[in-house]
Structure formats: structure tokens, C-alpha cells
Amino acid sequence: MGADAVVVGSGPNGLVAAVTLASAGRRVLLLEAARKFGGALRSAELTTPGRVHDLGATVMAMALASPAMRGLALDGVEFAHPPVVAAHPLDDGPAVLVHRDVDRTAEGLGRDAGVWRAIVGAAVRAGFPLTDLLLKPLGPWEPRPAAFAAAA
């Protein structure tokens, strides 16, 4: 029995395409050159056993927030998130740790905590409407996205 559609690549775009087609009743063949599915949106043990590394999802930070990914019914799929999303080393002190929580990150920013809460907090409060605005195709859009975020 043949496939109705062939999807090449199992990163976020390929996964969304394959699941969408399969949900519509199509027989889908999903091909991936690597040994495991997920493209850069996965993790693996790269250095020592038990130490799991992000293979590229940090550069796809918006993938899970995209309307396409949010619209998938992925029962049983759990996305892993590291306790510290990123660290930024400073010349004159310890690294700034970026957490998934605005206030927790702000705690490590000293005098800049208020600015972080104002800017990043506004984007977080705006939530998916702002995400959808920023990810939508080019064309007519909200002329003032910063004001859009601040209004949330």
C-alpha cells in the first residue's frame, strides 16, 4: 500500500505537515536522514552518558508557540525544557541565567531587573496573540507590535 504524501524532514515543519496530513486521513511516509526523528527540535547524549544536549531547539524557540504546533493533538508527547534556558557570561561578574520564568530571571539581574520585567514581561503577558502576530506571513499587520505587547 503506497503513501498519499511523502514528507521529507522530521523537524518542526515536517512533523506538523505529517501529523496534519495523517489527521486528515492521508497515508503519510515521513522520511528523515538522521537515525532519530525530530530534526533540530530534539536532544541527545553528545558528550557523556546521561548528559543530554539540545541539538538546535534554542534557535527554534518559537516552534512550540507556533499556531501550527499548538494546533496538533500530540497525546503522549512531552516536550523537555531545561531548568536554565540560556546563560550569558559577563566580563565583570557571574553569568546571567535565563529561566522560563520572568521574575526568576529578574532576580539575577540586579538593577536591570525592572527593565527585564517591563520588556520581557510585556511579551509574556501578551502571550499567543503577540506570537501569532510575529509569526504570521508578511503583509498587512499590526503597525506597532511593541504597543501591542505593552497593552497586554
Residue stretches low in confidence (pLDDT < 50, at least 5 long) are none
How much is the radius of gyration in Å? 19 Å
Hey, roughly how much beta strand do the residues contain?
15-25%
Estimate the helix proportion, in percent: 25-40%
Structural class: alpha+beta
Give the overall average pLDDT. Answer: 83
Helices and strands, in order, run as EHEEEHEEHHH
Q: State the strand order across the main sheet.
A: 1-2
What is the number of helices? 5
Q: Count the strands?
A: 6
Distance between the termini: 51 Å
Give the biggest sheet: 2 strands, parallel
- Apparent shape: flat
Describe this structure in words.
The protein is α+β, with helices and mostly antiparallel strands. Helices cover 34% and strands 16% of the residues. The chain is built from 5 helices and 6 strands. It has helices spanning 12-23, 67-70, 102-107, 113-135, 145-150; strands at 5-8, 28-31, 43-45, 52-54, 86-90, 93-98. It has a two-stranded parallel sheet with strand order 1-2. The protein has a two-stranded antiparallel sheet with strand order 3-4. The radius of gyration is 19 Å and the shape is flat. The chain starts with a strand and ends with a helix.
Provide key terms for this protein.
34% helix, alpha+beta, 152 residues, 16% strand, two-stranded antiparallel ribbon, two-stranded parallel sheet
